């Protein structure tokens, strides 16, 4: 992390008029234009003393040496516009012929309504759970058209997103379940072959807790190499500032550079979980890695079995507050 960055603008008398601090990740660059802020300051008769813009929005990081940017979306659409054609918007309470309630016991209905799913005009996609007067919940879920995200033999796949989970906590957050994840391509159109096709949960956050979860689902359910229905998971608090309080970068890597492959999970560059090929049965590993690849998903569910597994669901109650969005700054896939 870099040190706090500051905008400081002073009036003609020299007194401080505006000062803002923001801790930010080293590689992130703001989309806000200095010209716009400078023009506003000058028109108000103010002088800019120091200039470094804190922003909720940042460019997709360019690939590091040896890496290739395979896919990205930085969500720069106009306010109110839906996702680009790179994405499919899921609607309803299940896939056609798939398990009810999306297979997880969540209670919301997904829609394409801009009230649930839209760009915010500031470089973010906004997924907002809402509740109507009758107590019915709606939200949104999208998935990439592409289903071929995969680590090449001898290579590494990196799936990454910079986002802020729903900024709500305590009783008001009960039932919130924002997620960024990937499903094996054979699931599309089948909907009965989970978990054998593999699922990489890059980021899951529940009930407004300052905790990010990374989980692998595979093999058979219940039981199997991935201990279904729970999966093989790890978690940690978000570094420095709570997950709900600001944007963090969530990353998953599939590393095939060694004879024994490895999966790794990170938040803000800090690894907190890994699964080795040696932990999974050979047949299960083959089933989840030998197909075309994976597609990516972003959603905010309400209610559902996670993190309680088979022990029951977490359901919103009357104290749960609607209207707290997950903001997604960018999604990127890199290969090395």
Can you offer a commentary on this structure?
This protein is mostly beta strands and 336 residues long. The chain has two domains: 46 residues, no CATH class; 268 residues, Jelly Rolls, CATH 2.60.120. Helix content is 5%, strand content 35%. The strands form four sheets. Strands 4, 7, 8, 12, 17, 18, 19 and 21 form an eight-stranded antiparallel beta sheet that branches. It has a seven-stranded antiparallel beta sheet with strand order 5-11-20-13-14-15-16, with no helix packed on it. A three-stranded antiparallel beta sheet has the order 2-1-3, covered by helices on one side. The N terminus is likely disordered. It holds the Pfam family GH16_XgeA. One of its GO terms (molecular function) is hydrolase activity, hydrolyzing O-glycosyl compounds. This is Beta-glucanase (GH16 family). One of its GO terms (biological process) is carbohydrate metabolic process. InterPro entries: Beta-glucanase-like, ConA-like_dom_sf, Glycosyl_Hydrlase_16.
Key attributes of the depicted protein:
single chain; 336 residues; mainly beta; Jelly Rolls; 2 domains; 8-stranded antiparallel sheet; 7-stranded antiparallel sheet; 2 helices; 21 strands; 35% strand; globular; disordered N terminus; Glycosyl_Hydrlase_16; ConA-like_dom_sf
